[in-house]
Amino acid sequence: QVQLAESGGGLVQAGGSLRLSCTAGSTSAINRMGWYRQAPGKARELVASINSAGSPDYSDSVKGRFTISRDNPENTLYLQQIHLQMNSLKPEDTAVYYCNARSSFQQYWGRGTQVTVSS
Fold it and tell me: What does pLDDT average to over the chain?
């Protein structure tokens, strides 16, 4: 079992920025990590993810505003820590943000961190 530690949520005004971080307790052959979010009454949705080669993927709703990155880019086999820089935040970005990590056989979830954007 891989434990995921999330940090960086909080309250910010519209137009502001926040940075989320997620650290896996071990690499355990993790080859993709990312962030999902879930707003009240809505399904959980992918925000952004990155693979071990450093290739990012974004939902259309956050492209150009959010940037996902990883630590230790010289390790192209496994991931352990990622960050999500969120700029130009909008009230509709308000949600609980969950870190997700995947290996070839399993996936793991963090407990979630609240992001609230006030108008």
Answer: 94
